[in-house]
Design goal:
Layout: H1 2-25, H2 31-41, E1 44-51, E2 58-65, E3 72-81, H3 84-90, E4 107-114, E5 126-129, E6 132-134, H4 140-143, E7 156-157, E8 178-182, E9 186-188, H5 195-198, H6 204-214, E10 222-226, H7 230-241, E11 245-250, H8 256-261, E12 266-269, E13 283-288, H9 297-300, E14 303-311, H10 324-330, E15 333-336, H11 342-355, E16 361-364, H12 369-377, E17 384-388
Parallel strand pairs: 10-11, 10-13, 11-12, 13-14, 14-15, 16-17
Antiparallel strand pairs: 1-2, 3-4, 3-8, 3-17, 4-5, 5-9, 6-7
Helix pairs in contact: 1-2, 6-7, 6-11
Bound molecules: zinc ion (2 copies).
């Protein structure tokens, strides 16, 4: 592993040196080209907010990203969504972390430089980055557009993943003013959707869209959504737009009107398992976005025999308790689901842009991140915080 890292670091240094030589030889044609050249020869200066330790307090931080490689694009970030995963990761809930670490994987902005081999983007395009920034691109999963299921290296997460080319040694995410990413892992954002609405679709959107599409439901099928927060409210909107009759399960009575506004046929405020009994065996499919361990069995019982229940919310250490007495009697298929591949992420962005499906967001300043995190944990977000990147 370290040998591999050294090799790729050496390659990186060589490439940077070559790009630097190019800069010296080629006279700048215009300011844009000059910017492009300097982006390709020098590390990119970034400023953002980082977690410095497991306490999870977010603080301003200046750092560097790699120079723009031949296949890279540089994106000036305009908006960055706050996902519960950011909080779990920085606080070490999913395993030990390297710090400082800039979280954020709902990134939307404008392309300001492209590497010389880039074909998908040009300067001025709107582009986004979701939960991954690389994978092997050679295995069957990668070749079939399921990069998140890469079979060799695994997907490289947008933040906190070891990355030889990163000056900080790990990938750094979207709570910052720019990002350098391999073009394959950048998503084209159509100009008929505002960047602030596109940002949350890059995690919350794809994470719910992918399992909903795999559920293959028909118009009028009954679909349950558990946990109506950042992910759940988009799940409701997506399922409604595809013709489902949506049953939204929430523990927050104050969200009822909003959720009806998202198009849910029924909103069920759950105080105890008793509240779920009327729905036993009624639903064709159910998706849970709850990011903590909870008493799942009475929810799973709501799904019809041989139906599917998909858990996308990821609790501390990934641990959930399922009672198998329930599972043998209800005969429900249980699975988890992780984001979606790049083609499917492009699909959900296009679908939401074309059908005017927008997340309900609150735009905040960088200085409000810590407060927003607290509200996310306390279920007070309505429904996605999006950071205005001009405030970093
Ligand atoms: Zn996320
Ligand atoms: Zn792969």
């Amino acid at each position: 592993m370290s040998e591999q890292n050294n090799n790729s670091r050496r390659r990186f240094i060589q490439q940077t040196a070559i790009a630097g030589a190019g800069l010296a030889l080629a006279g700048p044609l215009n300011l844009l080209a000059q910017n492009n050249k300097s982006a390709m020869s020098k590390n990119i200066k970034s400023k953002g907010y980082a977690g410095k330790d497991v306490k999870g307090k977010m603080l301003p931080w200046n750092f560097e990203r790699r120079a723009v490689g031949d296949h890279d694009v540089l994106i000036e970030i305009k908006y960055s969504g706050i996902c519960h995963s950011d909080i779990h990761t920085i606080k070490g809930h999913w395993g030990e972390q390297k710090y400082p670490q800039v979280p954020g994987h709902e990134i939307a902005g404008i392309v300001t430089a492209v590497g010389k081999e880039v074909t998908k983007f040009k300067v001025g395009d709107h582009a986004g980055v979701g939960c991954m920034v690389n994978s092997c691109m050679k295995c069957d999963s990668c070749k079939s557009g399921e990069e998140h299921h890469c079979e060799t290296t695994g997907m490289v997460g947008t933040y906190g993943a070891p990355e030889a080319t990163s000056p900080t040694g790990i990938t750094q995410g979207g709570y910052s003013n720019n990002i350098v990413v391999t073009e394959h892992f950048a998503i084209k954002i159509p100009k008929n959707i505002e960047l602030k609405y596109a940002a949350p679709l890059l995690c919350a959107g794809i994470t719910t869209y992918s399992p909903l599409m795999k559920a293959n439901f028909k118009k009028g099928d009954k679909i349950g959504v558990i946990g109506i927060g950042g992910l759940g409210h988009i799940a409701v909107k997506l399922a409604v737009s595809k013709g489902a009759e949506v049953y939204a399960f929430t523990s927050s009575p104050s969200k009822q009107n909003d959720i009806r506004g998202f198009g849910a046929a029924q909103v069920i405020v759950v105080k105890s398992a008793e509240d779920l009994k009327p729905y036993k065996g009624k639903l064709d499919f159910m998706i849970s976005t709850v990011p903590y361990a909870y008493d799942m069995s009475p929810y799973i019982d709501c799904v019809k025999k041989y139906g599917y229940f998909t858990q996308v919310g990821q609790p501390i250490n990934g641990e959930l308790t399922i009672n198998n007495f329930n599972m043998i009697f209800n005969r429900v298929n249980f699975n988890g689901s992780l984001i979606g591949g790049i083609p499917e992420t492009q699909e959900v962005i296009n679908y939401c842009a074309d059908n005017k499906i927008y997340p309900q967001i609150e735009v905040i300043k960088a200085s409000e991140i810590n407060e927003a995190w607290e509200k996310v944990v306390n279920k007070e977000a309505r429904y996605r915080y999006v950071i205005d990147a001009s405030t970093f």
